[in-house]
Each structure stands twice: as structure tokens, then as C-alpha cells.
Input
Amino acid sequence: MLSKAYEPQEVEKRWRRHWEEEKTFTPDMSAPGEPYSIVIPPPNVTGILHIGHALNQTLQDILCRHARQKGKKVLWIPGTDHAGIATQNVVERALAKEGKRRADLGREAFIERVWEWKKKYGGQILGQIKALGASVDWTREAFTMDDNLARAVRKVFVQLYEEGLIYKGKYIVNWCPRCHTALADDEVDHVDSQGMLWHIRYDFADGSGSVTIATTRPETMLGDTAVCVHPDDERYAGLVGKKLILPIAEREIPLIADRYVDMEFGTGCLKVTPCHDPNDWKLGHAHGLEFIQVIDDNGNMCNEEASGRFTGMSREECRKSIVEELRANGHLVKEEPLSHSVGCCYRCKTVIEPYVSTQWFVAASKMAPAARAAVPDKIRIYPDSWTKTYYNWLDNIRDWCISRQLWWGHRIPAWTCPDCGELIVSESDPDRCPKCGCTRLEQDPDVLDTWFSSALWPFSTMGWPDKQEDLRTFYPTSVLVTAFDILFFWVARMVMMGQHFMGEVPFREVYIHALVRDAQGRKMSKSLGNGIDPQDMIEKYGADSLRFTLAAFAAMGRDIRMSEERIEGYRHFINKVWNASRFALMNLPEDRAPEVVDLGTVKGLHNKWILSRLEEVKEEEDQALEGYRFNDAAQCVYKFLWNEFCDWYLELIKADMREEGEAKKEAQFVLYTVLKEILLLLHPMIPFVTAEVWDSLPGCEGTDIATQPYPEIRPQCRKEKDADEMSFVQEVISAIRTIRAELDIKPSYRLSVVLRPASEEQAALLEANRGFLELARLEKVSIDAGAHAPKASASNVVRGCEVIVLLTGAVDFQAEVARLTKEIGKVEKDLATLGAKLANPGFASRAPAELVESEKTRHADLEDKKAKMLALQKRFMEAMG
RNA sequence: GGGCGGUUAGCUCAGCUGGUAGAGUAUCGGUCUUACACACCGACUGUCAGGGGUUCGAGUCCCUUACCGCCCACCA
Output
């Protein structure tokens, strides 16, 4: 027997172990069934599972478990990402506590140290995936630094190099002076900040006047090699080509013209520092300017010749000194505050320095068109609104800087010969220079951007390039489930690589889910400390509660505001599932499944009704999941279980269960069937509690719900007429309950009721099912259209049937008058809106005939109800005198 | 400067192809009715942001205004 309240901890632990030990989620390659596959977006090894991961994984798990139920051969591959910068930073911080820096260890020892760290902590995040109940195949767990993934990386790199799609070159890149590495464009966060715009006067060398430039970065002026204006700017007409004296440096630089300059901004006069600004870099090349570097890789002033006395200062110190000096010597014309955005490192928030260096690039601009064309024909994006964003990014893509000056990552498979300078790019480590035979080859010190290996994830995790079996069966994957924040970092790049190397897109569909925010709508982050730790929630409320909450809130294209209260609320639901099951167990045979009954020919109206509704719910859930409407799927089963199965059906069969007989046998089998199927419908969302209950059902002991098929469809159980008749009985019961509650009659007091049916049919229906009326706790029921209505009574009308409750003794008569008046008021309000609608000539002529007809019927029914209630009220008032 | 999303009950949010506004939570009243107080029965609350349009009919489609939020962009 199950315990009284559901205690998730022990149950979850057991099932987790069971699924892992039994390898339940390792697909049988020889089994039939359409393949269905997903690769998990690999969380960073440094990470701790946050609520966003929990959502991401819950949704994937729902899809996978559902697909399994539908008979598909399902593979869900788990894994983690080595997360170059992030992980290196974490380990460097740990070293710093020991007073060491990575240089103190040297490259090899440092990498060894990172691996140790990974072994120790990298498993943490996997444990959290397990805790959530994700039905991944642990035998295929992958890590982006695994040997076979490293081979994939090398092969891809070499091939792209040979095809001219990877190249090496000297460019201005985003440089983080703290992480000491280049960053890709999209690894730079733009943060709004309040800065200064300094106006500085540059005099002409011939003493014929001056121009004034405006800049936010005066420290870079030491590297200025020109000043630029717009060719059409009349203010500077005739001046282009003249020489200016660069203040402080006292160097001559030319005044040039280029259409790039915005005449509206500042003074319309731009200082050009080709080595320290990406735009100026372009101008420098276009105009053949000199390139003078004045800031080094640490963000300090360098180049004694150019920087002079400022050499060695940090960029910030230098800025201050230069401004002071300009102010002192009168070249500073104006200072004004300016809000602008500043590029920062997405990992450490340090201000990015545009920096000229030699880097490796992927010619993304050449690969983008194919990736663009894949959507929407080969890849469908849900919700569709992201398609535009995807296009927009690909249309404006620039080549992707993939080299990082880090130690942790896939080292670039390129070597240079110290003797002849030959560049060798090769899958295997070369032992000598093919050109001069030198054996002292030096490997490029850089590693690849983390996202380079991530881009190969859908096929590298399936064994490419070595093994083919998984690829043949499971590539392309069925769907990619991810949050929008990595649409660019990851999704678009996977498409490019998949197309290029597999000749096929990596996934058929992309489902973009919401971002989880806190109760105030802010992005959850460690720095804000507003995160909800899924681990805590699982311990407190159980994984099922967390999962169901996430599913219920996962409406498409919306952010989710998460709070603990909501998870607590859904824990009630899990408990409800548990207790409904306990009730069922108490009413079913203990050691065997109940006797089978033909479900198409059950007699009880309640049985016909619940079976009919069940059919509808099955279809609803299936369609909701088909369209990634997780919230609808969760909601429809939730309501069915709670508001129909528990609130009505279980109450209705209590009478059947009291004595042995046909009614009990029928109810037992229907109860058994409906409960089992509800469990199946809920299982993808709340796997643990459903597994536990299933295992304890008679006839199911020792079986695993995770391997059971989706409930069969039973068209013979669809009985809308019966279902509607049952609703009528329910409405009558509710009407009596409402009267009882509003007149403050004790629940324990048994009422007598007179029902005056509106038709022969109604009369027969009520007569046949009068036992159900017991749910309203009654003493005596008379069903008679001609019955005399007692004077001291309260009343209501349900589908034309008058419900008259006898009031004897201590009842507040005023209360009944008030209640009736209110009730009539409601009817009148409905009549008014409906009447206006019907009175509209356009409605009758243009609306569908069916609708007009049903509205007319409704109107007539309301009129009837109103008339009957007025009559009852009148009689009641007469009784009061 | 482009693009996207939001504005519905006190709070948090659902409302698919236009056809009587919904759930949870909160509040109020009543119940230990033999699965569940993590429960049961009942009640209350809405100019669906403002304005205009299309339509017989709009929370739902179109335009517009306001406020909030996000993304992208080489804003010196």
C-alpha cells in the first residue's frame, strides 16, 4: 500500500537507479520503429544546473518519452562542453588562491590541472541532469574534448583549411586584456555606459588654422595617423589633403575624406587610429595609412617611440594624463557627457580592446547562404518569429575569429617550420617539414573557440568521422531544443557545419523555448543572486513538481517568470495524482488485474462519460505535444485528472464499490483503465510518480511505465450524447450544492428535493441516475413534472428543469429572496447581450446558420429559465406573506 | 538606427485558425463527506493598455499612440 502523502525523495532515487542500471534509455538498434533523436545542448562543465537548463532538459525529456510511447526508436545523447574561457578562468581563480598563475605551472601542467578539475567537478552537472529524470542514454555520454570529438575537430579544421574556408591573417579583433585572448564578435557584450566626448583641436602644419575632432578615447590619439571628414562636408571643403599636427605626439598626419564619416556626429571630424578601432582599421587600409600600435595585449601603453612618456601606463591612466595635458596646453576645446555602449568580455566583463593580431578565421560569410536557405524548407523553427532573426544574423554575418590565446581547448592543428617558414596544417602531428625536412616544427600555440567544437556536436557525438552506425540511424536529429540566447553562437553554426560535412542539416526542427526569469522579470544570474536553484527545488518538492511547473509555464515565445510558490502549487498536483491512485488501489483487487469488461458497451452513464472524455484528452495531449504546446498538454491532463476524474468520477463510483455485483465489476475495470491511461499521459511530464504508481497497480507489478506504449485510441468509447447527459446530472447536483452553500445549510443536513423535468427524456434520465444525486447529500428526491412546489423552498433552473429544494425549519428566508434576485439578474444580463446579438439584422443574414440556430435556442432557454425563476420567486414571496 | 515581444481578475499567467472571457494563487464563507487539509463544497473580482478601422460579430485581424522589456548594429 502506498503511503498517505507522496514522498518523492526515496521514490525518485530508486527509479533513477533503476533506469540507469537497466539502460532503459539506450535504444535497441535492431528494433523496428522510426528513429527519433535529440542531442542535448551541452552545459558547460563549469556550470551548475540552473533553472534554464532544467526547463531545457524537461522539454526534451517530454518529447523523448512521448516519442518512445509512440513506438519510435529514441536516442537522446547527453554531454558537456569544455567551455574554454569559462573553465580556464575557474581554474585560474583556484590557482590564484594558492598564489600562483598559470604561467607558473606551464602549459602542460596547467592543462593537467584543468583535467583534474574536470574529473572532480564535471560530474556535478551530470548528476543534476540525472536528478531531473532526463531519459538520456548514458552509454553515449560525450564531452567536447573526448578523443573522438578531437579527431572530428581536426578533420573539420584541416578540410576547411584546404578548401580555403579557414584562413590565417592579421586583423583587428576583439581582445580581452584580462583573459588575454581574442573573442568572436558575438562574445562581446555591449553595455551602456556614461562616458565623455572630448573635443580636441588639431592645428594645421602650415599655421592656417585648425580642425576639431571628437573622441571618447583620447589615449588612442598617440596612434592617430589621419583625421577624416566626409567628402561632401562643406565645413571642410578645400582642406582635405592638408597636413595637421597631432597634439602631444607632435607628428604630422593628413586630413583625408571618406563617406564613412557621419557629418551629424560631434564635429563631423574623426580622428583615425587604425590599430585601435575596427572602423579606423578599414579606413587605414582603404587610404594606405600608417599603422601605429600604442596599446599592448595587457591594455597598457606600449611603443616608446609613439607613446613616449606615457609608455607603461594603463589605458585608463593614460587617458587621464592626456586629457589633463590637453587641457593645460589649450587643445581641449570642449568636454561633454555622452552615453554610449562599450564592448565588454562576455566572460569577465573587462572592457574589450580592439587589437591587431594574427588570428585564424572561418569564412562564415561563404557558408552562410546555404545555412540561410535551409530554413524553412529543411529546418522549421518554432515559434516561427525567430526565423526572421535567424535570417537577419546570417545576412550580416562576418568571418568568424576562431583562434583563442588560451591553453584549455582544442589546439589548432597547424605548425610552422622555424627554418623555412612553411605552414603545415594536418590531421596528424607532422614530424618533419615537408619542404625542408626540419624536425623542430612548432605548433601554433592557440586553441579553438569553444563553439567550434560545439558546432560539430550533432555528428561528432554520433561517432563521426570514425563510426557510422549511429549516424546512419539517427542523423539528422529530429529536433533541437534550446533557448534563443545561443541561436547565433550555436544553432546557425551547427547548420553550416552539418551541411558542409554531412551533406545534410543537423536537425529537422528547432524549438526555441523561453528564458526563465525571476519573479520581477529579470534574467536569473549568479551576480544578482536571484536564481532559483533547481537542485533545491528538487530536494524540497521533488523533480516531478519542478518539471510539471516548467511544462505548464512553457508557452511558446514567452519568457517564464519563475518563483518557488508556483512549484509549491504544482506539488499539490503531484500529491493529487498519488492520492487518486491510492483510492483506486483500495478499490481494486489486490493481487490481480480486474476482470475485463467490454469498454464499448459499458452501462453506467458515469462510465460512458469518463471513457468518452478520456478519448478527447488523449487526442488533445497528442496534438499539443506535436505542436510543442507543452503548456496545453500539461493543462489538459491536469484538468481532466483533477476536475473530472477526481472531483466527479471517483465520487460517483463510491456507491458502486459498496457492494459486489455487475456495477462494481464494471466500475473497477473502467477505473483501472482510466487511471492507467492518465498515468501514461502524464508520464512524459512527471516520470517518477507515475512510474511508482504504475508499478504498484495490480497486474502491472514489476513493469516499467517508461517502456509502455501510448494509450490505444478507442473510437467506440466516444459518446458525446452520453457525456452531455452526464453533464446535465452534474449541473443539477451543482445547483443543489449552490443553494445549500448560499443559504448556509450545513453539509451534514440531508435535503429533500423536487425536480420538475422539462421533458420526458429528462425525466427518464434523472430517474435512471437518481443514485448520483446522492452527491448533493439528499434525504428524498421526487422527479415529477407535475409535482406541487412546496411554499417554503429554494430553487433554481437547470436546462429547463426546475430544481426545488425544500426548506424546513431554521432557514433565512431573506437570504433566499436575495439569492433568487441575484440569480435572475444574471440571467437578465445574459439575455440582454444575447438579445442584442439576435436583434442585429446582419447576424441572422450573415452568420453561419448553425450558430444562429444555437443562439436562438440558448435565448429561448434563458427566457424559459427566467420565467420559471420569476414564478418560483413570486410563490416564495407569497409564502412569506 | 533596425527588428522582436509584452500590456487580460489583487498577484502570476493561459486564451490555436475571430462566435457566450479562463486557470493557479490570494481573498471571503462553509466542511475532518470512509484517497487527499498538499483536501472538499461554494462565492467574489475583469471599459481584455488608449484611440481608430475591417466584420453580422474582435482579447483574437489591420493601423495608430503610450508605457515596459529584449535582440541586433562599425553611435568617433
Residues 849-880 of chain A form the longest helix (32 residues).
